[in-house]
Amino acid sequence: MPGGRLTQQDRRRIATGLAEGLGYGEIARGLGRPTSTVTREIARNGGPSGYQAERAQRATAQRSRRSRTAPAPRPITRAPAAVTVAVDRDPAAVDEFAGQLAELLVHVGMPRMVARVLGCLYVTDEGSLTSGDLVRRLQVSPAAVSKAIGYLEGQALVRRERDDRQRRERYVIDGDIWYRALLASAERNAMLAGITRHGAELLGPATPAGTRMDDASALLERIGQDIVRSVRQWYEERGPVPS
Questions:
Q1: How far apart are CA 215 and CA 233, in angstroms?
Q2: What is the pLDDT of residue 87?
Q3: Cβ neighbours, 10 Å, residue 198
Q4: Which residues, at least 6 apart from 10, have a Cβ–Cβ distance to it below 8 Å?
Q5: pLDDT at position 82 over 50
Q6: Mean of the pLDDT values across residues 138-160?
């Protein structure tokens, strides 16, 4: 049914359609699905040139299992390891840098409060802060912090840990934050490539508007593929690729 979960047969038809050079809109019509459903499916699973039905089915099953069996927030059962801080570190300069980082993130499209929270977390040696810590450091309301954390969790850039000793949550930023952020960027590029390809079909590839859309689709797809390839190569050279 339209809007329901894709089946393995649906995914095989998507793969066949891509192999035959069909556009997202045409594939979606053949399945009786919205074009956005097909676009997201392809973007999540390798893009138009790397999509494989069986691999996409396995990935979806794995995501579903993780969602059903996701553990409760992990309690912190021991105090964080001591962190050695450079004696010549200037706290004012660190705060200024965090602000500069936040401004840059705003410039590239991140909401301002989200950028401030991310910048604040990123410059901590521990890589974690509580809501109260963020409220004090940023001089904002708990509600503003909560909304920003929700956004960052949705982007898989921050996770929560339960600190049972202090009966509160800590917000943690991991070392693979840029890996996740870049892969999210590649997925957005793939989705944009899909919708612009659909636009090219709709407008007609021989028309100036259709040609413009087709060129945009090809560029966005290439950029997304290059991002994924470069990021994975970087992590493979330095160690295991994050899961």
A1: 27
A2: 53
A3: 22
A4: 31, 33
A5: no
A6: 89
Q: How confident is the model over 192-198, as a mean pLDDT?
A: 88
Q: Which residues pair with 170 in a beta bridge?
A: 130, 161
Strands 159-163 and 168-172: antiparallel
Residue with tokens 């590029």: 189
State the pLDDT at residue 80: 44
Residue 169: phi, psi to the nearest 5?
-95, 150
Q: Show the beta-strand stretches assigned E in the chain.
A: 128-130, 159-163, 168-172
Helix (H, G, I), strand (E, B) or coil at 75: strand
pLDDT at 78: 39
Residue count of the chain: 243
Q: Rounded to an integer, what distance in angstroms lies between the CA atom of residue 198 and that of residue 214?
A: 9
What amino acid occupies position 217?
S
Tell me the C-alpha distance between 98 and 122, whole Å. Answer: 8
